[in-house]
Amino acid sequence: MEIKELIKKAIIAKENETYTPYSHFNVGCSVEMEDGSVYTGGNIEIASYSPTNCAERTAIFKAVSEGKREIKRIVITGDSPYTFPCGVCRQVIREFAKNVQIIIANSIDDYKVFTMEEILPHSFGPEDLCKE
Ligand code: THU
């Protein structure tokens, strides 16, 4: 899928898939998996706060629960200029990413592309546990 089309899906997710009665800060995410399938998600907030789920994890967990395991591209768009994934979400992206492009978008014409190594250097991952 074209990057711009994937960004559009994240923007639509930010508009339609969030539940943010406490912060009113909306984040949308779209993930393109290795097989070409696309999943989207928004942040979901809970009154006791800590169970809140970020948009990235909503989208990724939807994909993983459908049996998908490898993220090719992920787009994040939020209410601040260049909303970057939180530390927890960086680790979750890392779990399902080999050569992922991480796209931080303000609009379909204004975005930046990062690698996993750039946003989570020297990371711990599945290879550290699954030694053959
Ligand atoms: N949030 C995300 O959805 N993704 C991020 O990477 C940063 C933070 C959400 C969590 C919470 O609902 C709101 O933004 C404010 O922190």
Can you walk me through this structure?
This protein has about 130 residues and is an alpha+beta fold. The protein has a 5-stranded mixed β-sheet, with helices on both faces. It contains 5 helices and 5 strands. Strand 4 and strand 5 (about 110-115) form a beta hairpin. The relative contact order is 0.17. Tetrahydrodeoxyuridine binds next to helix 2.
Put the structure in a nutshell.
It holds the Pfam family dCMP_cyt_deam_1. This protein has 132 residues and is an alpha+beta fold.
Task: Show the helix and strand layout.
Layout: H1 3-16, E1 27-33, E2 38-42, H2 55-65, E3 71-78, H3 87-95, E4 97-107, E5 110-115, H4 116-119, H5 126-129
Parallel strand pairs: 3-4
Antiparallel strand pairs: 1-2, 1-3, 4-5
Bound molecules: tetrahydrodeoxyuridine (THU).
Tetrahydrodeoxyuridine (THU) is lined by residues 20, 23, 25, 27, 43, 45, 52, 54-56, 85-86, 89.
Order of helices and strands: HEEHEHEEHH
Cα-atom radius of gyration: 14 Å
Taking the alpha carbons of the first and last residues, their distance comes to: 34 Å
Helix content: 25-40%
Number-wise, the strands total 5
Present as ligands are: tetrahydrodeoxyuridine
The best one-word shape is globular
Would you tell me the structural class of the helices and strands? alpha+beta
The low-pLDDT segments are none
Strand content: 25-35%
Q: What is the residue-averaged pLDDT?
A: 97
How many helical elements?
Answer: 5
Strand neighbour order, sheet with most strands:
2-1-3-4-5
